[in-house]
Amino acid sequence: MKIEDQKLRNIGISAHIDSGKTTLTERILYYTKRIHAIHDVKGKDGVGATMDSMELEKERGITIASAATYCEWKGHEINIIDTPGHVDFTIEVERSLRVLDGAILVLCSVGGVQSQSITVDRQMKRYKVPCIAFINKCDRSGANPFRVIGQLRTKLGHNAVAMQIPIGLENEAEGVVDLVGMKALYFEGDSGETVREAEIPQNLLEEAKAKREELIDAASLFSDELTDAILNEREITSELIYAAVRKGTLEREITPVYMGSAYKNKGIQPLLDGVNYLLPCPAEIENVAMDMNNNEETVVLDSDPEKPIVALVFKLEDGQYGQLTYIRVYQGTLAKGSIIVNIRNGKKVKVGRVVRMHAEQMEDVEYLKAGYIGALFGIECSSGDTFTSPEINLTMISMYVPKPVISLAIVPKDNKSQLAMAKALNRFSKEDPTFKTFVDNETSDTIIEGMGELHLDIYVERMRREYGADVTTGKPRVAYRETITQRSDFNYTHKKQTGGSGQFARIAGFIEPISDADFIFENKVFGGAIPTQYISACEKGFKQSMAKGPKLEFPITGVKVQINDGASHAVDSSDMAFQACARGAFKDAYLRAKPVIHEPIMKVVVETPVEFQGPVMGLLNQRRGMIIGSQDEDVMCVIEAQVPLAEMFGFSTILRSATQGKAQFTMEFAIYRQVPQSIAEKITLEAAENKKSAA
Amino acid sequence: MIKKEMIYRNPLVNLGYDNEDILPVGGFGAVLAHAGVGKTALLVQLALNMMLRENSVLHVSLNDAVSKVDLWYQELFHDIAKKFDIAEINDYWDKIQPYRFIMTFKVEGFSAPRLEERLTDLLQQNIFKPHMVIIDGFKFDDAGRGQLVQLKELARKYSMSVWFTVHTHRHEPPQENGLPLSFLHVADLFDVIVQLAAKGDEIYIKSLNGKSADSAKNDLLLDPATMLIKNGK
């Protein structure tokens, strides 16, 4: 690895879906000589842009999963993590953002800052990712980069400053004026690969001078040296300006803006220079992990290659040669032959092949130092796992995985689809800890579970496209739960005498509600009323009962069972008898413990232009939503509410039509809460009907 | 039980105010203190008291995000109710939470017409009708009297009472009546004025204006550790 660490960049390219992110990535790879031909995103030539490795992405022209690739530009090594442009793949987005140190925020010079740019920007803000902006599509009619810079300021609150001005726009887009070096840049050759420097055209000179003044003014806030130079009228060098802008960018106090047209091969090389000059190297970013030996206390990681290894798996891919595990090393050096431990399950593995990826091509390397991104072969793990040296116990990501709140039955059309589906499900559940799958014993249906309607939709679609599994889906079902609201005693005898050896068991005790655990079993039987060897059978019996409520058949949670008395028979008592007795006792006590239904409540955050605030609140209110609050942020406003998941089906369509497509929302599980009586009655009826139809 | 406990703790009644609501309809109240002494904590306790009595509270914050304001409520509610079972507390919280609505604005984006616009959104669709409004972070130094007069009209129009936090500065010595100079020009608009003053390890809650003449004088303190109101020695 020849590159010095200061010359390493791990960046993401974040943008609204249609702003040309994939085209930009493609051009970057072309100019950095990682690829030798340019393709279109929509696959007109049947090849597709290089970063989109998934079929679905190729077809829709969007990017769902993040591929990582690297390239070199003027002695700097740039790892590009292709971040999803869609807000709903939260885990995917959050993981990508976790591994990047800086980002290019791509905006369309016609569309400007759109609501999704706002979400992407918000995510970057949350992870404190420094960014530079690139205003793309300057060749389109209606292009106006300075309007977009204005929107960056007003809509996103960025202190955006132009690093360039365009030489011509729309059809006449020819190049850009570099305001730091004060020269005109033209992009020549078949694919714009030759950058020609020239004098600034006379008609743009005044504008260029004025914009340079603005740039220097903004930059001077971050450099005393630059301020000195201005005050003393000394020469203001490019180095001075870059150093000041860089400082501001790293603090997220300034957003340098580049412009061009990726499709027309204009302005990409200066943008890459910008990445080199202005975005941070890994050592400039503080990364933290949680110490599992110390109550998840945060620990700051040190990019020292000599320290114990800490690395995060952020993406899995099925390659030709098996599972490819994308990994970023945060501390230490991950080399061939290193022994590392998967913190999630404690399994030790020996590192085999280490490679660096360029979309689907790879290059073998000996090691990956702290700050570097690469991929491993033959490592059994899930996305989001942390690997460390055996002597430490740190995790990069909280081990908390929320339980799924929605489920869907999927049925393959034929045998071939069945096999493909099994393969796909296996892969998805490894990639995404919030995606679960199992077979319902009663209906023999395969059930998939996840965090929302769209979450499951995407996986079903991927199953069809990538794995060729032809599946039909059932109606989505909300994961209701049952729980009890009061204590109820039991004293139950299980007795059966139907020829052969009989069954006898008696258990007494009580069940009561608890809020901090799903199930607690307490044995307070003294004096051998129930022989010790049968206690575990009792526990097993009660636990089995929790899987399905006796009335509505939803899983039961929040129950403490205490047994304090019982009886056995020397011949007729057995494990089986005590298990059956526990199930009977539970059923008996449960119905007297005032059971209620709980439903998943989602935290819904809607971002909408202020003029639609009223209608959006109305929509949430109609859906049994409780609005927690609203946050006015100039022209946009954010409404936060808690809404039952059952009421959120189809909400995205309704929200779009109520707000002319200008609002968008995110949704995550918040809490389980008791269902109101009227709704509970409806659910009870539905459950009874389902039971009938299943029978 | 929680309800009783909370109502018992109605903070300002102990200072000698006439009724539980303290402010009349359309009335203004102010809590004066230096930064970080506990203005928000005190008002959130007043709000919780209102919510428990099934009256709605609109909390307008010009400093903090919705999530932070929500956290104030949750923390103080849990602190007050901590001797009860956690399940009971959570249940009760679920019951009273709908009586609260948080709105946040940027200081420069806040104005009486803007608040009215938002209120109309809520009222027209029958989403929320506040009895009491808290405005936290209002800049008295900059805002002219006109802004407050407009808010007062709004309070009367929608039959609400409004509490403000007033940030006083350490460099500004109080006037004879105990009020800071920057507040004097609007003080007559306020029915109740309460001051929080740190003395040693204690934070005293003093009434500067608005309680009945014959009411007994009680000392109230804000516990600096929990920010909960407690009776003085």
Radius of gyration of chain B: 17 Å
Number of helices of chain B: 7
In the CATH hierarchy, the architecture of the largest domain in chain A is: 3-Layer(aba) Sandwich
- Tell me the span between the first and last alpha carbons of chain B: 26 Å
Query: Which secondary-structure class do the elements of chain A indicate?
Result: alpha+beta
Strands across the major sheet of chain A, in which order? 18-17-23-14-15-22-19-20
Basic shape of chain B: globular
CATH topology name of the largest domain in chain A, in short, is Rossmann fold
Radius of gyration of CA atoms of chain A, rounded to a whole number: 30 Å
- Beta-strand proportion of chain A: 25-35%
> Biggest chain pair contact, residues each?
A-B, 22 and 29 residues
Mean of residue pLDDT values of chain A? 82
The number of domains of chain A is 5
The CATH architecture of chain B would be 3-Layer(aba) Sandwich
Summarize the helix and strand pattern of chain B as letters. Answer: HEHEHHEHEHEHEEEE
What features would you highlight for this structure?
heterodimer; A: 695 residues; alpha+beta; Rossmann fold; Elongation Factor Tu (Ef-tu), domain 3; Alpha-Beta Plaits; 5 domains; eight-stranded antiparallel beta sheet; seven-stranded mixed beta sheet; 16 helices; 38 strands; 28% helix; B: 233 residues; alpha/beta; 21% strand
Q: What can you tell me about this protein's structure?
A:
The complex is a heterodimer of chains A (695) and B (233). Mean pLDDT of chain A is 82; it is low at 41-48 and 50-66. By secondary structure, chain A is α+β, with helices and mostly antiparallel strands. In chain A, helix 6 crosses helix 8 and helix 10 (415-431) packs across helix 11. In chain A, strand 12 (288-291) and strand 13 (297-300) form a beta hairpin. Chain A is elongated, with a radius of gyration of 30 Å. Chain A has five domains: 5-284, 3-Layer(aba) Sandwich (Rossmann fold), CATH 3.40.50.300; 288-395, Beta Barrel (Elongation Factor Tu (Ef-tu), domain 3), CATH 2.40.30; 406-475, 2-Layer Sandwich (Alpha-Beta Plaits), CATH 3.30.70.870; 486-593, 2-Layer Sandwich (Ribosomal Protein S5, domain 2), CATH 3.30.230.10; 599-679, Alpha-Beta Plaits (2-Layer Sandwich). Chain A contains 16 helices and 38 strands. With 233 residues, chain B is an alpha/beta fold. Chain B has a single domain (2-231), classed as Rossmann fold, CATH 3.40.50. Chain B is built from seven helices and nine strands. In chain B, strands 3-2-4-5-1-6-7-8-9 form a nine-stranded mixed sheet, with helices on both faces. Chain B is globular. Chains A and B meet through helix 14 and strand 36 of A and helix 3, helix 4, strand 3 and helix 5 of B.
